[in-house]
Design goal:
24% of the residues lie in helices and 23% in strands. By secondary structure, the protein is α+β, with helices and mostly antiparallel strands. It has a single domain, classed as 3-Layer(aba) Sandwich (Aminopeptidase). Strand 4 and strand 5 form a beta hairpin. This is GNAT family N-acetyltransferase.
Length: 193
């Protein structure tokens, strides 16, 4: 589990299906995203159950507010195929968007994975019309991909962005890893926010 100032990031559970279905059914949820397509095809439950089965570090995590155990979104880091490279996927219930929660939780998850031998590059895509998601990724330091990774569920017209994670270079401060700074030139470096 990872706690942020306002949220808890925990492994996804099959019980999160109701929140996921409610979010993807909301008219404000982009209809061309993979989760919305899986929902329309009746594949969402099987996908969530598969993501909940893991050995070791979970690939899909659910977000809750610290004050409530109810799922308000999810973040996933899925192996992309190349060593150290992961796809970032995320959703947040439309009712809680626009409050900085996605940025807070994605930063916390990337902080955790920016360790030697861990995640080195993160790839994300957004629907062409999803300006809020594209702006979020850019604020986090993602830059347009210099090469397009293999795409399995992402439509080819979706902008693809990447972020290189660089592990902390110095000693741990006060027994914990330093926070990630705002990256420069597409690199996500530990430091002060």
């Amino acid at each position: 589990m990872i706690d942020t100032p306002r949220c808890r990031i925990r492994p996804a559970q099959p019980e999160d299906l109701a929140a996921l279905e409610e979010a993807v059914s909301d008219p404000a949820f982009p209809a061309d995203l993979p989760l919305a397509r899986m929902h329309r095809a009746g594949e969402l439950k099987a996908w969530l159950e598969k993501c909940c089965r893991h050995d070791g570090e979970p690939r899909l995590r659910s977000l809750t507010l610290l004050a409530s155990p109810a799922c308000i979104g999810q973040i996933g880091l899925f192996p992309e195929g190349r060593p150290g490279t992961y796809w970032l996927s995320y959703w947040l219930a439309p009712a809680v968007q626009g409050q900085g929660l996605a940025s807070e939780c994605i930063r916390a998850l990337l902080d955790r994975h920016a360790q030697p031998g861990g995640c080195k590059r993160v790839v994300a895509a957004a629907a062409p019309g999803n300006a809020r998601s594209l702006a979020l990724l850019r604020r986090l330091g993602f830059l347009p991909a210099d090469e397009l990774p293999p795409r399995t569920v992402i439509p080819p017209d979706h902008p693809c962005l990447t972020l290189d994670l660089l592990p902390a270079a110095g000693p741990r401060q006060h027994g914990r890893a330093a926070k990630l700074s705002r990256p420069a030139q597409g690199h996500h470096r530990p430091g002060a926010l």
